Amino acid sequence: MTKLEKLTLVLATGLVFQWGVQAQTTKQASAKPAEKENVVEVLATGPDGQKLTVADILSEVNKMPSPVRVEFLKNTDSIQQVVRNLLVRRMLAQEAEKAKLDQDGVIKAGVQVAKERVLSDARVRALDEANAPDDKALEAYARNKYQANIEKFKVAAQTRASHILIEKKEPDSIKLAEELIAKLKAGAKFEDLAKEHSKDPGSAVRGGDLGFFGEGRMVKPFEDAVKALAKPGDISAPVESQFGYHIIRLDERKPATTMTFDEVKNQLLPEVRGEILSQKRALKVAELESKIKFDRASIEQFGKESSQIFNPK
């Protein structure tokens, strides 16, 4: 197993400190230095013996979204930069301790709050793991959400068409449009004429292809002309709009439909999982909040005194 695979395994299981335990076990079990497994423990060392370990950097990596983690672990320079930053922070923290800055009451509280943030996040992850529904239950929840929100998964009818746009700059613009239609009837390729003559730069490079569009997306004269075309391949007479004269070819029609559960399953499963876990978290928070007793008078006094300190008149 490579070092990267081992790192990924630790991340996947959430056992941040397993690496150090594994390294210690390997050392104890190896009778000869040559037989030791190459397990990374220390990634960098400071001038006074400060060490930055795998557990340290995993504490940062665990904060990253999963796709970012994967890319991060592939980039040695990125890993080294984070290792550098963490070790510099550790060195500064040790200097602060030597200067007894950690004895300040507010700083002590800040250290405690930071510790509690890490531990509370770990507790939430543990609760999420315990509350996560199994695959069967998750799919059942997703199916219920699909049925309850079926309107969300309806897809309106779509039309695909191509056009050649002739600008109305010249008196004989309509004549040019009619000449192009005659060439099409004689066997000329629509795509070639669109690339040569169409003044719509976005579609001209694609042979006039406008892609799929729903009702109401095009100007009314254009939309009415498309509706009047009976079957794919049919070409309209010149259609006038504020943009000029359009020669339109109907390419394809898709009727209105509803996406099946299987089509939206991969979208719904993470959504539903997130909703379930959020509900469980909210219940846990509400349970804890119900046990809190506030000293309203003290809070009010703190606010008054602090506002005078931070906003002296």
Poorly predicted sequence stretches spanning 5 or more consecutive residues: 1-38
Strand order of the largest sheet: 5-4-7-6
- What would you call the shape? elongated
Determine the fraction of residues in helical runs and give it as a percent range: 55-70%
Mean pLDDT: 87
Describe the structure concisely for a colleague.
This protein is α+β, with helices and mostly antiparallel strands. It has helices at 3-13, 18-29, 54-61, 66-74, 76-98, 105-131, 135-148, 173-185, 190-197, 201-204, 220-228, 261-289, 296-310; strands at 42-45, 51-53, 154-155, 158-166, 209-213, 239-241, 244-254, 257-258.
General description of the model:
By secondary structure, the protein is an alpha+beta fold. It folds into three domains: 3-103, no CATH class; 108-153 and 261-313, no CATH class; 157-255, Chitinase A, domain 3. It contains 13 helices and eight strands. The chain has helices at 3-13, 18-29, 54-61, 66-74, 76-98, 105-131, 135-148, 173-185, 190-197, 201-204, 220-228, 261-289, 296-310, and strands at residues 42-45, 51-53, 154-155, 158-166, 209-213, 239-241, 244-254, 257-258. Strand 1 and strand 2 (51-53) form a beta hairpin. Helix 6 crosses helix 12. Mean pLDDT is 87; it is low at 1-38.
